[in-house]
Amino acid sequence: MAMSEEHPIPISVVRLGDDVEKLLLDVVRSGIIAQGPVVKRLEDTFAEMIGVKHVVAVNNGTTALIAAMQVLDLQPGAEVITSPFTFVATLNAILEAGATARFADISADDFNVTAESLATRLTDRTKVLMPVHLYGQSAAMTDIDALATAHGLHLIEDAAQAHCATDAGRAAGSWGTGCFSLYATKNLTSSEGGLISTNDDAIADRLRVLRNQGMRQRYQYEMAGNNYRLTDIHAALCVPQLATYPAQLDRRRTNAARLNEGLSGLVGLRTPAQLPGREHAWHQYTVLVGPDAPLSRDNMIEALTSAGIGCGIYYPRLVFDYDCYRSHPDVIVDDVPVAASVVQQCVSLPVHPYLTTADLDRIIGTIRGLFESDTHGA
Ligand SMILES: *Cc1c(COP(=O)(O)O)cnc(C)c1O
Fold it and tell me: pLDDT digit string (tens) for 60-77?
């Protein structure tokens, strides 16, 4: 079937409503266009949504991670253990903060590091555990939090993709210091932006001072800071989305359930697990194309693309698997066999809230066709 006959189904959609336009105009007309009351509203509303005491807004998600580490006063050589299966910002933030990065293997069930794998990487230089809640699914935080407590380690959560994901009824970002991205394609967006969550009064206080050049009161500097501020113009894009987010999350969850049901029982295709006790934020819906599949991952992507179905590989390589990191003195590459296998098999499919029933049927029908048609042998 020719691609032109059917509309393309993109992997993500940015749709901002009239309420955003109105608030944006209000901000423009107010004359308070840098950090002001709308940033405060964004912080307070999001804090309430995820059940934490403090949220500090910053200018992007990478900055959120950097700032979360900078307020800990890590010494050179301090080791941060994170996931090898993540966006490059996780690793860049560790290096920017002057720490050393190490990697624990992931579980193929949730694509995240586990307490068991983190435990195998502990040394006397370990200072921070940094799980990533990839694709919007919370890591197994009850266990990871217990490990951090048992060893006196800081816990920083890369929750860039996991707004309102939960484990055991607790939101991602509410266990340690949570770092969220508000980039254009994330579940919540301010075009560029970031949020840092914490229940720790002292950390929140240091983050607020750090964000504003280390200044507590005008020209009273108490630490070497930076300009990490978010603007009210950016916050105005995001604030109205907070009210509709619960309904959007429901749509993502319904879409994922439909895909899981429609794609079940195909040899060589592993659909994402909805793990007990966890609520997924479905930033991405990611399947694994195994060696027993009737077609290769590349062929599947080619076929989906020509059928107008958006898809993506997040991520094509392990985060350290580039010359610039393999040769970096602050990157310690460890053996991570599960992640190394998953990285060759993952494909993300559209799950965003604007998919129609017909879109979902088309995605399911196309993939079933691909996996079932080859059974006569080539
Ligand atoms: C998007 C993302 C970031 C960085 O956020 P930015 O707002 O783009 O700086 C960090 N970690 C993960 C896992 C991400 O997906």
Answer: 999 999 999 999 999 999
Tell me the C-alpha distance between 274 and 289, whole Å: 18
Rounded Cα–Cα distance for residues 352 and 283 (Å):
8
Give yes or no for residue 157 CB within 6 A of ligand 1. Answer: no
**Crossing angle between the packed helical segments 297-306 and 357-373, to the nearest 10 degrees:** 140
pLDDT digits (tens, 9 = 90+) for 211-236: 999 999 999 999 999 999 999 999 99
Tokens of 151: 């060893």
Which numbered atom of ligand 1 lies nearest the CA of 134?
A: 13
Neighbours of 200 (CB within 10 A): 15
Contacts of 365 (CB under 8 A, 6+ apart): none
Q: Is the CB of residue 188 below 6 angstroms from any atom belonging to ligand 1?
A: no
**Ligand 1 within 6 A of 285 CB?**
no
pLDDT at 5: 61
- Provide the 3-class DSSP secondary structure of residue 340: helix
Closest CA to 312 of 370, 351, 341, 279: 351
Domain ranges of the chain: 18-240, 245-372
**Residue 112 Cα to ligand 1 middle (Å):** 15
Q: What pLDDT is attached to residue 4?
A: 46
- Low-confidence spans in the chain with pLDDT less than 50: 1-4, 376-378
What is the β-pairing status of strands 79-82 and 54-58? unpaired
Q: What is the pTM of this model?
A: 0.97
The structural architecture, per CATH, of the domain 245-372 is: Alpha-Beta Complex (3.90)
Supply the pLDDT for residue 274: 84
Q: How many Å lie between the centroid of ligand 1 and the Cα of residue 87?
A: 7
Four-way CATH pick for 18-240: 3.90.700.10, 3.40.1110.10, 1.20.1250.20, 3.40.640.10:
3.40.640.10
Ligand 1 centroid to Cα of residue 86, in Å, is 9
Tokens of 155: 């816990």
Nearest CA owner, ligand 1 atom 14: 160
| Dihedral class, residue 251 (left if φ above 0, else alpha if ψ from -120 to 50, else beta) | alpha
Q: Is the CB of 161 under 6 A from ligand 1?
A: yes
